[in-house]
Amino acid sequence: MGYSVTSSSAVSTHSIASVIVAVIEGRGFARGEVGMASIDLKNPEVVLSQFADNTTYTKVITKLRILTPLEIIMSNTACDSGNATKLYTLIAENFKNVTFTTVQRKYFNETKGLEYIEQLCTPEFSTVLMEVQSKYYCLAAVAALLKYVEFIQNSVYAPKSLKIRFHGSEQTAMIDSTSALNLELITNNRDPRKGHTLFGILNYTKTPGGSRRLRSNILEPLIDADSINTRLDSVQELLQDEECFFGLQSVIARFLDTEQLLSVLVQIPKHDTVNASESKITNLIYLKHTLELVEPLKEALKSYKTPLLKAYYSSLEDSRKKEC
């Protein structure tokens, strides 16, 4: 397919990171307009973004630090030795322990990107088509990203199986990487292995997905007052009934990494092998375990009255679950 790896990361980074990101920049008069697409291999969700950046590419670097990518994909024309773009050079300088893979420019195809979204996006997230249909660079990025992921995973995604959303920055604050480091939001400056950080203090989450969400919210905190107040109302209600709170916590703690399970289930292997068959059986057992927890979770949520917790309860009423 014309892929080549230009650098490789340390083993310790690979054991943690699971996000692959494709980045492309406009050319000529469009230079500075950047499109990005990312997918977490442990979560069947694609996040798109497109924005105008400054000459130091602060937004790109900050977004990549939030994603902590396993691998970054760029076009071969941007990474040519002796003629590399400033964007590639800055990303390479800031992410020395991340694998870079170059892809032929033809795979950054906005038409193919739109086709991927139409084919793979779940109906609940289909409004993303209206948001991105004129955002050519993020469409080009998602085309290269999904083509590459299907290649390395040796599988294709099932139709209508991915959450695909466009991530604007209007409702969140962007904390630059230097500030995040100095404030020790995620990493302790003296000893990165220690949890003496804001994240370490707050992390009482019970699932891997909860931990990922907390990290994201620390690095990109909400600034929308209505959303913040909705969350605060839910926290207040949880604190008012200790028995219900611990009951809910107990049920949540029994869940596996649901996002990672879904990510595996929506991929269709290109070739049937013994290992693939064994994995299917194992994943079906995990899925059965997860579905058996839906009713206990509904029971734990049914007495809550705040809009956010009621919305979670209502989502568990989905009639499609009964078909399982």
Automatic annotation (TrEMBL):
Superkingdom, natural source: Eukaryota
Gene Ontology biological process terms from the UniProt entry: mismatch repair; reciprocal meiotic recombination
Pfam family, one: MutS_II
Gene Ontology molecular function: any one: ATP binding
InterPro entries to which the protein is assigned, alphabetical: DNA_mismatch_repair_MutS_core, DNA_mismatch_repair_MutS_sf, DNA_mmatch_repair_MutS_con_dom, MutS, MutS_con_dom_sf
Annotated GO CC locations: nucleus
Domain DNA mismatch repair protein MutS connector: 19-155
SUPFAM superfamilies: DNA repair protein MutS, domain II, DNA repair protein MutS, domain III
The DNA mismatch repair protein MutS core domain, residue ranges: 181-309
Family recorded in the similarity comment: Belongs to the DNA mismatch repair MutS family.
PANTHER family: DNA MISMATCH REPAIR PROTEIN MUTS FAMILY MEMBER (PTHR11361), MUTS PROTEIN HOMOLOG 4 (PTHR11361:SF21)
Protein name: MutS protein 4 like
Species of the source: Crotalus adamanteus
